[in-house]
Design a protein that fits this description.
mainly alpha; 296 residues; 13 helices; hpI Integrase, Chain A; globular; single chain; 4% strand; DNA polymerase, domain 1; 3 strands
């Protein structure tokens, strides 16, 4: 990948990689966000951007129909850069100050109910090597709450079935250990006992989940098979790996897990990221109250 056109942007990305250990995907997203601003202001240096420029770009993004979540994420990236630039330059003004984030920034995550999860996990044909692989991936995803990138990056050596856990590397190259449930462990054993070797067809790979060509299954490949199995299971709601991850966290909390434990399992660096699930629980309690209280 070529260097960013603005030297200050290049230095900021180097700082984020070295000091905060952010992943390549996160750094690439920050770069795209800042380069969008560069394009909208005609290629001027970021240091010359004024508050009026940021407001003009925000107006254009709203007119284009960008979602509030997308706009807010873009503004957060800008704030991070200009906060760093102010420190590095001895107090340069921040053009994003006094600009509020869109109000729908804290949308509640979509979740599957227990019946939908059971139908989804039962959808793959486990008599077929690809179906058994898909079943293993779905079981591991729901049992661990891994990000899709973490799921697809798993190696055979990351799985410890006798001890009942997987080891994964998450955002910022941070490693964590996540327990596996009995169902996920059983399906993984079946997959490793024969289906994986069938898919590899004598090719070599240390990837846990492989395609029919013997290559590691990609995130895009998993998205496609997840949606196909969702349709087969009769799930009408939009389905993504993140929805399954949200469902994992929500179901843990509904069954009595504490927020700190869920934070560790999800690999969230900050508890505030996990706290959105307390809103999910409050919504569920309201529904229960309305449905069952005699004076609701």
């Amino acid at each position: 990948m070529s260097e960013p056109s603005d030297p200050a942007l290049a230095l900021w990305l180097e700082h984020l990689a070295a000091e905060r250990g952010l992943s390549r995907n996160t750094l690439a997203a920050y770069r795209r966000d800042l380069e969008l601003l560069l394009r909208r202001v005609g290629g001027r240096a970021l240091a010359s951007v004024r508050r009026e420029d940021v407001l003009a770009v925000l107006h254009e993004m709203r007119a284009e129909g960008r979602s509030p979540r997308s706009v807010a994420r873009w503004l957060v990236a800008l704030r991070g850069f200009f906060a760093w630039h102010g420190d590095a330059s001895g107090g340069a003004p921040d053009p994003t100050s006094r600009i509020d984030l869109p109000r729908s920034w804290t949308r509640l995550p979509k979740v599957l109910d227990g019946a939908d999860v059971e139908r989804l996990l039962a959808a793959p044909d486990r008599r077929d090597p690809r179906g058994l692989r898909d079943a293993a991936m779905l079981e591991v995803l729901y049992a661990t709450g891994l990000r899709v990138s973490e799921l697809c990056a798993l190696r055979v050596g990351d799985v410890h079935l006798d001890a009942g856990y997987v080891r994964c590397v998450g955002k910022g190259e941070k490693e964590r250990v996540v327990p596996l449930g009995a169902e996920a462990s059983a399906v993984l054993r079946d997959y490793l006992a024969g289906a994986r070797a069938t898919l590899l067809a004598r090719r070599r790979s240390d990837a846990l989940f492989v395609s029919g060509r013997g290559a590691p299954l990609t995130r895009q490949g998993f998205w496609k098979l997840l949606r196909a199995h969702g349709r087969r299971a009769g799930i009408r709601a939009p389905l993504s790996p993140h929805v399954v991850r949200h469902s994992f966290a929500t179901h843990l909390l509904e069954n009595g897990a504490d927020l700190r434990s869920v934070q560790m399992l999800l690999g969230h660096a900050d508890i505030s990221t996990t706290q959105i699930y307390t809103h999910v629980n409050r919504e569920r309690l309201r529904r229960l109250y309305r449905d069952f209280h005699p004076r609701a």
